[in-house]
Amino acid sequence: EIGIRDYQTSHRTVQLPGLINIAAFVPGLVTRDSDDLQRVTRASVAAGFSMIRVMPVGKDGSISDVKSLKVAQQNGKRGPYCDFNLSITATSDNAHQISHTAGEVGSLFIPFNHLSDNISKVAAVEAHFDAWPTHKPIITDARTTDLASILLLASLHSRRIHVTAVTTKDDIKLIALSKAKGLKVTCDVSVYALYLSQDDYPGCSLLPTAEDQAALWENLGVIDVFSVGSLPYQLSHFLGKPADATVGISEAVPLLLTSVAEGKLTVDDVRLRLHDNPRDIFELHDQVGAGVEIEVGREYTLKPETWSPFGGRSLKASVQRVTFQDQVVCLDGAVLQVPPRGADMSTHGALPPTSATVS
Amino acid sequence: EIGIRDYQTSHRTVQLPGLINIAAFVPGLVTRDSDDLQRVTRASVAAGFSMIRVMPVGKDGSISDVKSLKVAQQNGKRGPYCDFNLSITATSDNAHQISHTAGEVGSLFIPFNHLSDNISKVAAVEAHFDAWPTHKPIITDARTTDLASILLLASLHSRRIHVTAVTTKDDIKLIALSKAKGLKVTCDVSVYALYLSQDDYPGCSLLPTAEDQAALWENLGVIDVFSVGSLPYQLSHFLGKPADATVGISEAVPLLLTSVAEGKLTVDDVRLRLHDNPRDIFELHDQVGAGVEIEVGREYTLKPETWSPFGGRSLKASVQRVTFQDQVVCLDGAVLQVPPRGADMSTHGALPPTSATVS
Ligand SMILES: [Zn+2]
Ligand SMILES: [Zn+2]
Ligand SMILES: [Zn+2]
Ligand SMILES: [Zn+2]
Ligand SMILES: [Zn+2]
Ligand SMILES: [Zn+2]
Ligand SMILES: [Zn+2]
Ligand SMILES: [Zn+2]
């Protein structure tokens, strides 16, 4: 009888709408003639993501003014395989500049922990809050006291704010507390941070400690969104592995749906955090004709073509079919020979909403 | 005619109620058998302060548990010349301990910039907010992002918070913004910070820059209280001068009333910040029978007995008579031969107010 139950291990097919990665890292984003953006969109659509929000921070620079925005926009014309939007990075002194780009980007990113020119002065952040249109999203990667600072400013200005890539118990608790007290704050956690900890890579402060990771899982209700983020790329770099622009994208959905197979998450938990909430929080267009079919329950060993920390790990879910604009673009993990049909959606929602309905 | 006007330079006598120093630094506070507290009360009453709130941080330790509180209480029994109250310092792990002392102290001090064991984790501060009785004051010396953190926590918990010894433009602006948005925050500025800057002592980061100082004066309406604070003692130490426990006390009122003589402040500005606001913010007992007479308008050169950065400076106000418990205790700067009659008022207001009236 045990044998029969093993044999019958329930395979099932889960249908999800086209998924959204709200934090896609593109190393060559502002590098002239880079095809990283195209490659990331291709890997994304193959992994079930029909829309990605590109982080405005690349390996060699960030989108922080009209000039760098132009370079990224140009790179976005090389035939993207899924829809995307661009954002702009706040720097210590570009509060005025960014107000000119608001119509051309999806959001403002206020970085505290990314590469060059992190913002640290409350005054500088305050200037950005005042310069950025009130209806457009603001995202930050602030931590600990920086996080508290920016939450205070958001509170004082009655602004919504999204905290990206939360990794610690303290931060998720501060966000939980802020939500409980009525602050309009949302957050995401990188998929890698849910499945890798410093127990796996001792001394790697990019990852949560095992205790922090446990706190993230315990506070699932506080986590609005799951993202890919820059963590996979940074981890590759930290470990001295060849850091491919597409690292971390293909495992995201299989990892999360494996947790569904194991009863740690429900399909609704995932749909909410990879589609509904991202769409609502960032006021994204709804992608009619986009969808993903995932087989859940059949166990296999991950053997990725390029390096992944999950190579060799046993998974129980795989993306079988991806539809984009009513066309099947991916079958059993392979991207079909179809022309790239993604678009730069950065200007969607550029104008303040004319009614209270969410578009 | 010019001669006559010079001759007639208006001398006048200003009457003020017994003044309050909300931040008195006592070096030997938790040093067994120290007479620093007595000496500070004596210098205070001579300077017009009939009530002092003793900072819970001394030179060799702080009041942070029942044991250190007992030592300070014992030192407080050596015949204080004015009323005083004690407070307790938050440390990284004494949130529970302090809840046991709440009935015996005037307030909780959350230090970010004082000596040992500064608190930096939002979580630790959060624990103190939860452990400390809601009706009792909380004071902090937090700066920049730490200040923003604690203002956020105060906002989330709907708690009043007092920020002590503000010195920078950024901080006073953040407090101004917070007040404007309805946060229950109050603040004080050290008298030394109003009259000394880094232009006087280059490289001394204890003092505001000239620009910061100008911002403090411009934001006078945001400053609820003037204090003596630990700045005079720290400055002495920084300059390698003999740091007397009483440094900075005697100049406070003459400096402020000199600004009155020069038209930079009004008498009401001073009364509000050295009596009314301190009393209301910290729910202090009203001292009937305490008062100060100050001669304003006669110019003289300050020649202090112990070192002061204001030695040799031209002032236009002096404390002439101090009354305490309806008895004259000080005439023309000299303390009269009277028995010390101050009291430890720490338990005043220990119980939650029974009505909405301010006592
Ligand atoms: Zn302009
Ligand atoms: Zn503002
Ligand atoms: Zn959709
Ligand atoms: Zn829309
Ligand atoms: Zn206890
Ligand atoms: Zn709390
Ligand atoms: Zn009074
Ligand atoms: Zn009272």
Task: Kindly describe this structure.
2 copies of one chain form a homodimer. Chain A has 359 residues and is of the alpha/beta class. The longest helix of chain A is centred in the last third of the chain and has 15 residues. The termini of chain A are far apart. The N terminus and C terminus of chain A are likely disordered. Chains A and B meet through helix 5, helix 6 and helix 7 of A and helix 5, helix 6 and helix 7 of B. The complex binds zinc ion (8 copies). The site of one zinc ion (ZN) has 4 residues of chain B, from helix 5.
Largest sheet of chain A: 6 strands, parallel
Ligands bound, unique: zinc ion
Q: Which strand order does the major sheet of chain A show?
A: 5-6-7-8-9-10
* N to C succession of SSEs of chain A: HEEHEHEEHEHEHEHEHHEHHHEEEE
* Class per helix and strand makeup of chain A: alpha/beta
Oligomeric state of the chains present here: homodimer
| Distance linking N and C termini of chain A | 52 Å
Q: How many E strands of chain A?
A: 14
Estimated helix fraction of chain A: 25-40%
**Mean pLDDT of chain A, rounded to whole units?**
91
Rg for CA atoms of chain A: 20 Å
The DSSP helix count of chain A reads: 12
Poorly predicted runs of 5 or more residues of chain A? 1-7, 355-359
Chain pair with largest interface: A-B, 25 and 25 residues
**Strand percentage of chain A:** 15-25%
Q: Which outline of chain A best applies?
A: globular
